[in-house]
Amino acid sequence: MPRPIFISHSHKDRDAAQAVCRAIEAAGLDCWIAPRDIAPGEDWGESIVGAIDGAAAMVLVLSAYSGASPQVRREVELAVSRGRPLIPFQIEDAKPSRAIEYFINAVQRLDAFPPPLESHLPRLTEAVRRLVHEPPRGSADEKQSVAAEPSRARLSNLPTQLDDCLGREAELLELDGMLTRNRLVTLVGTGGVGKTRLALELATQMSDRFTDGAWLVELAPLRDPRLVPETIAGIFGLPPSSSGAAADLVCGFLRDKELMLVLDNCEHLLEAVASIAERLLRAC
Hints:
The protein has 284 residues and is an alpha/beta fold. The chain is globular. It is 45% helix and 10% strand. It is built from 13 helices and 7 strands. The protein has helices spanning 14-26, 44-53, 64-67, 70-81, 98-104, 121-131, 142-148, 150-154, 169-181, 195-206, 228-235, 243-254, 270-283; strands spanning 5-8, 31-32, 57-62, 86-90, 110-111, 214-218, 260-264.
């Protein structure tokens, strides 16, 4: 059974969120949305965590309300930490809180204004379908498409970029050369200059060169440096464990792999990231 699309929203945007849910489900993709999918008597927190863990992607219905909502922030933070692809669907021209902005600044947003909302829903459903590599229901090419794309879905958790990376051709060419000669390349620069977008574009372009693809580890939500190895382990579905055991698991798992690993938003965890990077480079 396909994993559902988790819809994150403020309760004040319930009508818009339900319209999003109906549009995505009409396109043949299941959704998980509160409160509809929380059974009577079920713990809300546990239901939401379980739904995000089981989701294929998250659609964030972004408004002034959700952009300031602590609950929505927790949902987005959890989705990012779990490596779930995210599509912010902005239903009004309102700036989100710094906390929400921090987690979605590397992701292309879809604007749903000016109204009516319904006029923007087909573009959203097509973006969601591309994100989860799902052809339209009833398509004559459905079986062929699913057979042709599973390896890419399995060998990458890179978010689908909904725009083109323009004006960075020289940097991409230079980085391509660097990664041909070196096993470790670090991008540095001031906040907002586009390091994440450039790294994701590079990883997308180069992923087919690696037998085991390209993988993104988003470290922005972490505050405890000891969780860096466990976060990397979680990307590959390795079991939770202590920091030392997680580092050993990651090294053992990746030892015979050929892949690109993108560690994003490292600046607040430099020592821990440098430590695991050194271990991986020596062991793998």
